[in-house]
Amino acid sequence: MELLDPDLLLRAYSIGVFPMSDSRDAKDVFWVEPKRRAILPLDGFRMSRSLRKTIRTDAFAVTCDAAFGEVLRCCAKRDETWINAQIEASFNHLHRLGHAHSIECWQEGELVGGLYGVKLGGAFFGESMFSSSTDASKVALAWLVARLTVGGFSLLDCQFMTDHLRSLGAVEILQKDYVVMLSGALGASSVAGADGPEFGALDRLLGSDPGAAAAPGCVIAQLLGQTS
After folding, report:
1. Which residues lie below 8 Å from residue 52, measured CB to CB, with a gap of 6+?
2. What span, in angstroms and rounded, lies between the C-alpha atoms of 54 and 99?
3. Is 184 helix (H, G, I), strand (E, B) or coil?
4. For a tag site, which of 61, 136, 140, 180 has the least CB within 10 Å?
5. C-alpha–C-alpha distance, residues 192 and 76, integer Å
6. Distance CA 125, CA 39 (A)
7. Can you give the pTM of this predicted structure?
8. Residue of 152, 61, 151, 146 whose CA lies nearest to 111
9. 26 CB contacts (<8 Å, ≥6 apart)?
């Protein structure tokens, strides 16, 4: 099976285009540029009281890039999915190259939720999420928002709007406005150079505080409380 060229993938994302397929078993991949785009403003993440409690009490152990392939595979395990075998293999390759990342939620050593997406400059393109335990995907998204905020990112792309995303603060904008935001996120990154957006900044923050290591959820809830 031929992989999608990683340079082609990244160029597509840089102009607001992304790949999809018709089903899990479909052979073809097509390129999508929606007329309306869902984004989640990093200062607009909505936490209900119950979700804040779940985050603060560390009901889930949350990791980053610990099980990318498994998260992708779980996202594809649906009756209807746009992730075919070629897309799955191509994004696993993109992950190995350092351009695609995942957030995982665990309970008693079992993967119960997560999300994955593509990082490019100051933008993160959320691809898909899954949950087999209540609030697991919401917690994964909360940790992603905190990670992007601490790392200096400016755009979280959600592609298509859903009721789930809307409840968490996502908004829908025209594609032409999205392209302007995307250009700004990528341009700001190139100007900033080495001091630009950094996906691993949250890890350093949590690792530098002994208290955070014991109760990381409290730090995440506080970070999100400052922006929401």
Report:
1. 221, 225
2. 30
3. helix
4. 180
5. 36
6. 9
7. 0.94
8. 61
9. 84
Token code pair at residue 79? 């009756």
Structure tokens at 105: 């939620």
Q: In the numeric block, which tokens belong to residue 207?
A: 């690792």
Q: Name which of 203, 28, 224 is nearest 141 in CA terms.
A: 224
- Kindly state the tokens that stand for 200: 């691993």
Strand partners, 102: 116
